[in-house]
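User: Predict structure, ligand calcium ion.
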Amino acid sequence: MKKLIGSLILSACLIAPGIAAPTALLITSDELEDAWKPFVEWKAKQGKPTKVITTEEIEKSYKGSDIQEKIRLCVREHIDKHGIQWVILGGDSQLGGKGIVPDRDTVHQTRWGKNTDIPTDIYFISPTNWDADADGVYGEFEDDREAISYPDGSVGLGRIPVRNAQDIKAYTDKVISYETDYPKGDFGSTMVYTCTVAGAYPKVRRSWDDHVSKALPDGKMSRYFANKTPWDKKEDGDFQLNTANWIELINGKSVGKFHFHGHGLIEGWELEGHQMFTSEHVSKLTNKGAYPIITTVSCFTGHYDAAQDPCIAESMLRAPDAGAIAIVAPCREGKPHFMDPSKDFPLMMREGKMDGTTTTMTHFWEMGIRDNLTTGAALMKTKAGLAPKAKKSAMFHMCLSELNLLGDPTIAVHPK
Ligand SMILES: [Ca+2]
Ligand SMILES: [Ca+2]
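Assistant: Predicted complex:
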């Protein structure tokens, strides 16, 4: 009897209010720990108690070859022993293993050339260390194969690439707005595809027609392609995808979901007439309270780990009272990954066969909306679905490694 009473008291303690077991783990630095407190308090109110652990604590408490390895071991311990469902990397990364939450660089040799420094955030939720041959080079498609594992979809992951307390405050305010005061009406069910590359028109069309529209049957979708938009006046394509018109699209507060397809650089999206949408234009955004989620295949727009900072995705996330709430973007070139490029590439041009990057973005939307998932869960379940291809193809291995979620992984893709 004593034993029973003892265990009842123990269970009561474990489920007592205020000490609910954390469902999310947020990693940041000692310096920024306090700045995250309002975010953490907010998440607890949302039923997602969040534990904060700093890289300084991790450095002391875990054994591993470097800080990234120690972070991975810490994350896995929290997943395996404490049932953590979301992992939030709460800070930017800088070159050479520096920054608030340093990224893990993995190496990729594909038909596009060799990349040695692809920031691979899925490494942190991996049960294996991505360096089977222990040469200190991570993610080698063949030599490290046995130690490479992809997400299984059970844990949501994202990085909020902030640098200081002001960034954290601005982002936290946006998350609270997103979760309490999401715009009424058609905002959430309106999706815009922009595309400035003619060869991509067919696959961008199919992204909606064959997939996202199925999850959002009452959705309102518009295509702003270089050759035709709903806002053309005298002739097809005369509404230009230029910076002024993009600012208008976002400031109109009527579109909650964007997919941008076209060229890009670290500092911005390239629109028609080689106009660049950069941080200068982000500063003209006034979409307070109406923060869209964005997917984009534009090269380098998610290059959060660069010496040059911010990348355009970071500008959009850090902007106070404006910009975006979450972005899935390539950290380097936005490549069309295919299993059999010589056969698949012409099919892409002709009939819109989707490559790995466009498939990732499309499934993120389709699954996230249909299954009512959070952003982090939607992207990791998408990667889980593509994992069999990544095991067979170095290009898909790169695809899964290089597309990171920038933003809070615990917010809904499609708030009700
Ligand atoms: Ca290796
Ligand atoms: Ca950065």
